[in-house]
Structures are given as C-alpha cells and as structure tokens.
Amino acid sequence: MNISLQSEGFIELPPHINQGGFDHAAVSLSQKKLYVAHTANDAVDIIDTTNDRYLRSLSGLNGVAGALVSDERNLLFASNRGENTVSIFDLKTEKELKRINVGIRPNGLAFDLERNLLLSGNVGLPNEPSTYSLSLIDVGTGEVVKTFSTPGRSRWMVYDPKAQAFYVNIGKPAKIAVIQANDYKADPNWINIDAEGPHGLDIDIKTGRLFCACDDKTLITIDLQTKREIFRSTLSGPPDVIFFNAQLDRLYVAIGNPGVIDVFDTKSMTKSESMKTENGAHTIGFSSIDQKVYAFLPESHRAAIYSDKLKFKEILL
After folding, report:
1. The model's pTM
2. Range of the domain at 217
C-alpha cells in the first residue's frame, strides 16, 4: 500500500465529564480553527489548526452531536441532541446568535449558502418512527420553514450547490433522500442503496459523485446524473464520518472498530492505506488548507493529527 498519512502528534482535549466522547467536526478556513462536538462535555471544543493546540470550548450545548461551518456567512452551527435545538454562532466573536427548536434529537447538518437554509436531521427516538424527521431552517429568521417525515433515522447529509439539492442518508430502510432547495415544499425524491445502514456521506461536486459509507463495511459511489451505483469498495469495518479531499482525490473514512482511517484513491476507488487511530475513534475532521486529518480519540480524549505525505504546495507545482 502507498502511505499518504503521516502522524504529527496529538492535541490534548478536556477530559470527558459524562459518558460518551466526540462526534462531528468542521473546519473554518477563514478562522483557521477546527470545531468538534465534544458530546460527553455538552460542548464544542475549538482547535487552532495552524499551531495544532486546544484553545477553548463553547459550553452549554446539551448532547451536542453535529458541527458545521459556513465561512461565507461567518457562522458555526451546532445540533444539540439532548435538548432538540440547533445553535448558531458568530465565527469571529463566538457569540451564540440563535438557538432554534427543531425535531427530536438533531444530529446531521447541511447548509445551502445561496438561500441561507440549514437542514437538520433529527434521529428521533428508537423504534418510534413518527419521531424521525428533518427540519429545514431559514437561518435569517430562525424559523423552521418545512418539516419532513422520514421512513427511517437519518445519519449524515451534504448539500450539492450544483444540483441545488440536499442529500440525506437514511439508515433503515437504506435510502438517500434528495430534497431540492429551490422547491423544498415538494416531497423528497429517493435513491435506493443496496447495502445495510448508509452512514457517512460526502460529495465530489466536480465529477458529480456521491460517496456513501455503509454499516455493512461497504463504500458505495453514486453517479448523481443517473442516481445509480457505479462502484463498490470494501471497508475495514463499520464506518462513521467521511471526508473527501478534492485537492488530492482522496477519501478519508473513520472506522471505530477497529480504530482506523481508511484512505481511498477516488480516481480508482481503491484503498491506499488504513491508518491506525484508537478503538472507538469514529469521527474525524479535515483541513484542506494545510492537508491535515484530525482523528478524535475517545479513550484518551485527544485529537491525533495526520498530515498528507503529498503537501499542498507540491500540488501546485
């Protein structure tokens, strides 16, 4: 295997106060900071990605699960699964601007910059299908403008500015919801997934492909023109968070058991390596400006730092 990720050490993060660990993370390129949901602490931890050090935490976010950044709007979004709300922060001041009531147990987030619309995936209560939903929020007014019922619990989601559509993974039945942002009052369209438990999701906008990592150790590549599977790859274990690196044509897949990051060459959709992390490390963050991957380690409450062997400056040569 070709080795692309190189270990660059660790960042110590606050010890867990309660049970649980970390969840989704997002990077602000303008602020050069990473924001990770520290669910065990009801907080979002902030990391300086230039110097790779912990700065501080935004606290009081009950059961925080999702983090998403819009550099263009200067906003940080956080889904607070423990209190059924979504928080909106100013990136520069770190002041909370709004806290919005959504559906039960919000998790995944996706943002339409053009229309200033935020989609929250509400996983609901186990075995209570009536509680599975999506909330579409007008960020300007803080109002939920549309609520969608879903046939199963949502996992992660992304927004496609080219197609002006949200894509949302549904765990069971295995589907991806397609919601048109310019016609959001219409019912979603659906992409059927021939695998168990669609979970991690990311998009290659340039080539029109969707990457869907599933619980049955399957990575599915979908052509967004035809809405059909065009490639299937095998993962080292059940996945969670995934990130696409457009500069290097690589996909990083976090797998908690065993604790590894699977790295795929997205030109050939072949696995180039599996980088060891820590047992239970199911979530990662990615900074495209300096080609770093951060893996969040729940047992040692640290972030492991990996840089790509091929540095960004070499891409430009």
Report:
1. 0.96
2. 1-16+201-317
